[in-house]
Write a structure and sequence with these properties.
76% helix; 0% strand
Length: 70
């Protein structure tokens, strides 16, 4: 069997982090709106973590995994 492509694995990792960020943000919004049995403080925390996972972490990982110039 051949080695898995690192670019594909990194793409899947970044996509999974974005998806988890979106899920966290949604749960946070539901908690803030009172639709989930969580305190609003937890909702704001989940919303903040979700936004960081959605927007910041993928950029940091892409910079870290960027191929060196040839």
């Amino acid at each position: 069997m051949s080695q898995p492509d690192p670019a594909r694995q990194r793409f899947i990792a970044i996509s999974a982090i974005r998806l988890s960020g979106a899920v966290f943000a949604m749960i946070g919004l539901l908690a803030i709106a009172g639709k989930m049995p969580l305190p609003p403080v937890a909702g704001y925390l989940l919303l903040a973590v979700g936004f960081v996972d959605l927007f910041v972490v993928p950029l940091l990982l892409a910079k870290r995994w960027k191929s060196p110039p040839q």
